Amino acid sequence: MDWLTKHAARIILALTIAFAILWFSNNFSYGAYLDGVARELYASYANDILLPFGFYFGLCALENFIPALRSWKIKAAIAFLVPSIMEILQPLWAQGIGLNFITAEHLGLGISFDPFDFFAYAAGVLFAAFTERKFLNRFAFWN
Predict the structure, then answer these.
(1) How many domains does the chain have?
(2) Residue 40 is part of which domain span?
(3) Is residue 130 part of a domain?
(4) pLDDT of 30 over the 60 cut
(5) 114 in a domain, yes or no?
(6) 143 found inside a domain
(7) Is 9 exposed, middle or buried (0-12, 13-18, 19+ CB in 10 A)?
(8) Is 60 exceeded by the pLDDT of residue 104?
(9) Which residues, in sequence order, are CB contacts of 142 under 8 Å at separation 6+?
(10) How many CA atoms lie within 13 A of 54 on its CB side?
(11) Which of 53, 59, 100, 101 could potentially form a cystine with 128 if both were Cys, beta carbons 3.0 to 4.6 Å apart?
(12) Comparing C-alpha atoms, which of 74, 111, 76, 75 is closest to residue 96?
């Protein structure tokens, strides 16, 4: 497999995963199939798991252009820290203190601080890293 084909396949797959996660998180109705506690947990934490997972694969698509992203640890740290920083800033967004150019709601992260979100971010990132390292690394175009 030549260099261009290998990297194009990796970029296309990584972006497909990232955009599929983003599409799903924006279009799946909370109440369509779930009731009670399951609906509440999905509404509270599904995006907090899915979006860092997709963000990790968005970073995978960039690693051919940004060599620092080739380490799964760097991608995992970035995919965890970005939503974590946004979580910490949510009280500022909720109060409208100088951050009105984009809101946390626009990014799918809500407007209320929840410390359990950090566990959801970590779960999403760790699952993405596991998926990349244990499943996708088996394919020639991914390595």
Answers:
(1) 1
(2) 3-138
(3) yes
(4) yes
(5) yes
(6) no
(7) middle
(8) no
(9) 10, 13, 132, 136
(10) 20
(11) 53
(12) 111
